[in-house]
Amino acid sequence: MNILILGSGGREHAFAWKMAQSPLCDTLFVAPGNAGTAQVATNLPIAFTNFSAVAKAIRDHKIDLLIVGPEEPLVKGIVDFLRNDPKLTNLRIVGPDAKGAQLEGSKDFSKQFMLRYGIPTAASQTFTAETLQEGLTHLETHALPVVLKADGLAAGKGVIIAETAVTAQGALREMLEEQKFGEAGSKVVVEQFLRGIELSVFVLTDGENYKILPEAKDYKRIGEDDTGPNTGGMGAVSPVVFANKTFLKKVEDKVVKPTLDGLKQEGIRYQGFIFVGLMKVNGEPYVIEYNARMGDPETEVVLPRIQTDFVELMVATADGELEKLDVQVSPQTAVTTVLVSGGYPGTYETGQVISELDRLDDVMAFHAGTLAKNGDVVTNGGRVLAITAQANSLENAVRKSQEAARMVQFDGKQYRRDIGVDLIRYAD
């Protein structure tokens, strides 16, 4: 079959790399893609938010299966748009419609959803510009630290953890009065701070049945020991040593099942991935957030561990036949180290030539922000490459990923040297 993946990051390169291995895949396209996806697929110069251009490409290339990688087109309703096209009635799509994507597109919606269906999460209240004064008063006596979240999509930057009431009040004013995050911050969720350890669980559902994919832990802050500003993700590890069978059973019973039951009760036929961001607090799972797609860089450690034909999994998801398949998972540990541009997550330069990629052995370099230019691969984003290694132990996977991260060169390269190290200590 002919397959199209929407997106241009490391997640989409990982999808393309995995799907290209399937005998079911005839021709593979990625829109817009990057220098890495070009090695395993044909890149199409189309913006994934240009729904008409995407529909035309699907018709022109006789696409049978569409995988929507990023959240923005999902939240903006690309699935609804394509399903309403009378010429695309046979198109299989993996990704929720706009109603389902609200799980990620609106923090307020997801909070209310969790409350309705008894899904464990931090206590919260939502405020708007009209209720700003009420919010400021609420923050005067709120336990500290306190978490403020912009309601809509803010490119991973819409979460502020305030250590003092004054800081929290200033942040609330910035978001609601000064529109720091634009429309995304027209509502702000003020939330209890949970103390625990984070991880992510990934669910694949066809609207009726579900499969739980390998869990992962990512590293969001730019600096070692989780210091400095948040980023889109500096690395990830799968499996997660503190997520034993007992805990994962709690996640399934207390989070996954009620989430899927809730979606059905809301009249949402959700076909795609649900990323469940969790905090493990005293052995219990609490939901921090939902995403309506796979995470990045978590995909780069989850997909290498999946041994089942990935195209077969995607077709079963779109056809409502997931119950017919088993997800086979490698017992190996996967670790990815993300190489980023100098200055990221602030201002950074692009166009730096990347060298030594051809020297990498027994690791996978998933391209995130890269471009093929004049015979070179050059940097084209904040996050540039995700270097994934697999091994029979966490220590060896960390070592292999870090050695490869040191080997690849480009001006201004930054990366964290402690990805997975805390989990080695945890295991000890």
TrEMBL record:
Pfam families, alphabetized: GARS_A (PF01071), GARS_C (PF02843), GARS_N (PF02844)
InterPro entries, sorted: ATP-grasp, ATP_grasp_subdomain_1, PreATP-grasp_dom_sf, PRibGlycinamid_synth_ATP-grasp, PRibGlycinamide_synth, PRibGlycinamide_synth_C-dom, PRibGlycinamide_synth_C_sf, PRibGlycinamide_synth_N
Reactions catalysed: 5-phospho-beta-D-ribosylamine + glycine + ATP = N(1)-(5-phospho-beta-D-ribosyl)glycinamide + ADP + phosphate + H(+)
Pathways per UniProt: Purine metabolism; IMP biosynthesis via de novo pathway; N(1)-(5-phospho-D-ribosyl)glycinamide from 5-phospho-alpha-D-ribose 1-diphosphate: step 2/2
Single biological process term from Gene Ontology: purine nucleobase biosynthetic process
EC number(s) on file: 6.3.4.13
Single Gene Ontology MF annotation: ATP binding
ATP-grasp domain: residues covered: 111-319
Key words, A-Z: ATP-binding, Ligase, Nucleotide-binding, Purine biosynthesis
Gene3D superfamilies, per the entry: 3.40.50.20, ATP-grasp fold, A domain, ATP-grasp fold, B domain, Phosphoribosylglycinamide synthetase, C-terminal domain
PANTHER family assigned to the protein according to its UniProt record, in alphabetical order: PHOSPHORIBOSYLAMINE--GLYCINE LIGASE, PHOSPHORIBOSYLAMINE--GLYCINE LIGASE, CHLOROPLASTIC
NCBIfam families documented for this protein: purD
Family from the record: Belongs to the GARS family.
Protein name per its UniProtKB record: Phosphoribosylamine--glycine ligase
